[in-house]
Write a structure and sequence with these properties.
about 20% strand; 6-stranded parallel β-sheet; 5-stranded mixed β-barrel; alpha/beta; binds S-adenosyl-L-homocysteine; binds iron/sulfur cluster; binds FE3-S4 cluster; about 475 residues; 14 helices; pyruvate-formate lyase- activating enzyme; Rossmann fold; OB fold (Dihydrolipoamide Acetyltransferase, E2P)
């Protein structure tokens, strides 16, 4: 679903990529919808749930928004720029709507939740505003909007997990899939808007997760990524099987579906990832040896202001523990520059933390104050933008060096790679990932492998974000 770009600053995490499902059998459906997603993987996964709900209600997907009866934007509020992207996109759709008056425009996701009906005042062309826990009510809201009323549902729920809805995987490579295991977030990182846009944390029924993953495997998929804002706090009391399922147990259950099914997960919070999880990862070859462990800052003082609830030393001990239990584990991070009161010394702590952790890659951002967050209420956004950006550049430079080191160290090694499809540049080459989540590109030659096969690849060269190799038979 996303390419890891580690040589560029990502101002918007995994954003800007439009998700527009294939048009399939349009004749089966009375109407057509077009959906674009922004933000994190959870939003992309939600769009697949929305697609499923709409299919059941007579809407078929189209990739061409000009022929759509309904345009949906699944939005993100994480940084100001993310919201700006959506506003710009809406002006494009405004022109289309002018030419096609019956067409409806709906805003879904985090920005809908944050702005609620204010959205309708700000963006007059929007007909529907639907928060992340209200997608089941979409069909009713569409009917309401069709009568010319503005339709809004932004109620957050303590229970909704969409557990029983089978997502429609329309834009997939048929090999890798994302599976939501929980929703919401109970952490109150002071910079973060997610607890407000996604509501309380709740875990999805383990049985339904395992069923979804098994179905995927039976349909030819070879890799699932278990998704949540904080997967380590997954906790489900399964009354039917009289069992309390922790994240480590869920990982194990997923890994046991088949040794041929790879398991990944995202995101881990450094305070919550347990030894039990690490040992489970080590025990199963098919649980990928890769952890996204966002540090945010290397300064204990800033971490405290961020309400991350760990210190620099605690984080370092976690990294050591990971390396002890899985010496070959890949590691990546999210980093914010210029948080409130950050000094040059705090910034230097972030750089030295990066060196310590030797991240394979990172998503790097400068701090963007979000309305309603703890930081907005408590602290002054006092670091001037040029300083934030200068520090961000230094962070990016550091990461570039670390990535280069990490990728060149792999030269000469042989990895088991899951083929995901053709390489972007040439259909004579395959693209796939190793367990550590690094992308490998290698010539197909005449081996007759296909998408979804595992293949051993020896690395001959490395660019900053890709390993180049050859198949070893
Ligand atoms: N749940 C995940 C992160 C979700 S948001 C976690 O806890 O790690 C993805 C990343 O966006 C965060 O890790 C953080 O680095 C960044 N981010 C969140 N709020 C931000 C803000 N206000 N300004 C800049 N970056 C932010
Ligand atoms: Fe935001 Fe923190 Fe929750 Fe991640 S853990 S979603 S950064 S509040
Ligand atoms: Fe954005 Fe919402 Fe995800 S704010 S990062 S889409 S949870």
């Amino acid at each position: 679903m996303q390419d890891y770009v580690n040589d560029k600053v990502q101002d918007e995490a995994k954003q800007g990529e439009a998700f527009a499902p294939f048009a399939y059998d349009p004749n089966n459906y009375k109407k057509k919808f077009y959906i674009e997603s922004y933000g994190c993987q959870m939003n992309f996964a939600d769009s697949e749930i929305v697609a499923s709900i709409l299919n059941e209600n007579g809407f078929g997907a189209t990739r061409n928004f000009e022929e759509a009866d309904l345009i949906l934007l699944n939005t993100c509020s994480i940084r100001e720029k993310a919201e700006q992207t959506v506003r710009n996109r809406l002006t494009t759709f405004k022109q289309i709507k002018n030419e096609k008056p019956g067409m409806l425009i709906g805003v879904l996701g985090c920005m809908a939740e944050r702005l609620k009906s204010k959205f309708l005042e700000e963006e007059k062309l929007v007909d529907m505003v639907v928060g992340p826990d209200a997608y089941r009510t979409l069909p009713g809201l569409i009917e309401e909007a069709e009568t010319g009323q503005k339709a809004v549902n932004v109620l957050l729920s303590r229970e909704e997990t969409y557990a029983d809805i089978s997502p429609i995987r329309l834009d997939s490579n048929g090999v890798t899939a994302f599976v939501s295991i929980m929703r919401g977030c109970n952490n109150m990182c002071s910079f973060c808007v997610v607890p407000f846009t996604r509501g309380r944390e709740r875990s999805r029924d383990a049985v339904s997760i395992i069923k979804e993953c098994t179905d995927l495997f039976n349909n030819g998929y070879k890799e699932v990524t278990l998704l949540g804002q904080n997967v380590d706090s997954y906790y489900f009391v399964d009354e039917v099987n009289d069992e309390t399922v922790t994240f480590a147990m869920l990982l194990e259950k997923t890994a046991m579906i088949s040794p041929q099914l790879r398991v990944r997960f995202s995101t881990s919070h450094p305070k919550d990832i347990t030894d039990e999880v690490l040992h489970t990862m080590a025990r199963y070859e098919n649980i990928c040896k890769y952890i996204h462990l966002p540090v945010q800052s290397g300064s204990s003082r800033i971490l405290q202001l961020m309400n991350r609830t760990y210190t620099r030393e605690w984080y370092m001990a976690k990294v050591n523990r990971i390396r002890e239990i899985m010496p070959d584990c890949g590691l990546s991070s999210d980093i914010i520059s210029g948080f409130c009161t950050e000094t040059e010394e705090d910034h230097a702590d972030t750089l030295s933390m990066m060196e310590f952790a030797k991240y394979d890659y990172s998503y790097m951002f400068f701090y963007s104050e979000r309305p309603g967050t703890l930081a907005e209420r408590r602290y002054k956004d006092d670091i001037p933008e040029p300083v934030k950006k200068k520090r961000l550049r230094e962070i990016v430079e550091m990461q570039n060096r670390l990535s280069k080191e990490s990728y060149s160290k792999d030269i000469g090694n042989t990895y088991k790679v899951l083929i995901e499809g053709n390489s972007k540049k040439s259909d004579k080459d395959w693209m796939g990932r190793n367990s550590q989540n690094k992308v490998l590109v290698f010539a197909k030659e005449n081996y007759g492998y296909k998408k979804g096969d595992y293949v051993m690849v020896k690395v001959n060269a490395a660019t900053q974000g890709t390993l180049l190799g050859t198949i070893i038979n």
